[in-house]
Design goal:
With 321 residues, the protein is of the alpha/beta class. Helix content is 47%, strand content 12%. The chain binds iron/sulfur cluster.
Length: 321
């Protein structure tokens, strides 16, 4: 973590090893995902983990599956149900969550009884399986790092979910950099101020609630306040930003420029915002023009906003907004 802006620091992302092409599956195969290695891999440093190999199951190995209740399933052998690796996988998940305290996100392999995030098949003692479980390792890991941005590889094929994940990774990364520099009330206030517009594009109510929380910065213990803050921030960012909400943020920025805009400038901006909202222009178009106007008429509150000035890597990964 070398840069307060994160431009030259590496972003480490945990990932299920098989997604990188490592032959660690029970049958000796892999699940290589070329989008991850080809696109995201140019900007992220992968931290591969195969929990089943790590707990000593070996390759190849007898396959396991989730059984019992979806709320509290067990990972047992398909051929030999007496093999039960639930505790080992959970303990390894808790341990890895402590060891990997510098990762900024995690991409899990879907459907796996160890790594799957959601809708993993759970086999009841009788009847059809329910797709309602979560892999034992992933569950234990995320219980210990609940606000870490996490996704499954399959969901990253959806552009909106992908953009949302990438945005959360970069916000979380900046948060880790803040903690590394040392958390103070002033730095928390500054961090929140920088992310306000980004947050507004997701959830205006959450933004107001976090305003009130941050206002307590001088009077609450910083660690407890920080825990509250990051958990609510990351939860709010999971709510998808929509073109309508983005348009509101962009209009808010036009409002900040007020009398500094002449009628023609204002009309041009409004037209670009409406075009973006109708799906006829990228958000980058009004954002670029707004940046231009704020360069000519600097506004201290707007200058540091990550919304207008995202990390260049984030911009490239999100396809230019
Ligand atoms: S899904 Fe997880 S446990 Fe299964 S092979 Fe991939 S990394 Fe290993």
């Amino acid at each position: 973590m070398t840069s307060s802006h994160g431009h030259d620091s590496r972003i480490r992302i945990g990932i299920s090893s098989c997604l990188l092409g490592q032959k660690v599956r029970y049958d000796g195969n892999h699940q290589h995902d070329s989008f991850l290695t080809g696109t995201l891999g140019r900007f992220f440093e992968w931290v591969p983990v195969c929990p089943e190999v790590a707990i000593g199951l070996g390759v190849p190995r007898p396959p396991i599956r989730l059984t019992g209740s979806p709320a509290k399933p067990r990972a047992v052998g398909i051929e030999d149900p007496d093999i039960d690796v639930t505790e080992k996988l959970a303990a390894y998940g808790r341990k890895q969550a402590r060891v990997l305290d510098d990762i900024s996100g995690y991409i899990f392999k879907s459907k796996s009884p160890s790594c799957g995030l959601e809708r993993v098949k759970v086999y009841p003692f009788a009847g059809a399986p329910a797709k309602r479980g979560r892999g034992i390792y992933a569950d234990a890991f995320l219980a210990a790092q609940p606000w870490l941005p996490a996704e499954e590889e399959g969901r990253l094929g959806d552009p909106r979910l992908r953009e949302n994940f990438i945005e959360r990774v970069f916000v979380y990364r900046r948060w880790q950099e803040l903690l590394a520099r040392g958390l103070t009330a002033g730095r928390l206030v500054e961090f929140h101020a920088r992310h306000k517009l980004t947050l507004m594009a997701h959830d205006v109510e959450a933004c107001r609630a976090l305003d009130r929380l941050v206002a307590q910065a001088g009077s609450r213990r910083p660690k407890a306040l920080a825990r509250d803050y990051i958990s609510r921030l990351m939860a709010a960012l999971q709510r998808p930003a929509t073109p309508a909400r983005h348009a509101k943020v962009l209009m808010h920025l036009v409002g900040r420029l007020k009398e500094n805009l002449n009628a023609a400038d204002k009309a041009e901006l409004l037209e670009l915002i409406h075009a973006y909202r109708r799906g006829e222009a990228l958000r980058l178009a009004p954002v670029t023009l707004l940046r231009h106007h704020f360069r000519r008429r600097p506004d201290r509150d707007i200058a540091g906003q990550t919304y207008l000035h995202p990390d260049p890597r984030e911009l490239r990964l999100r396809g230019g907004l």
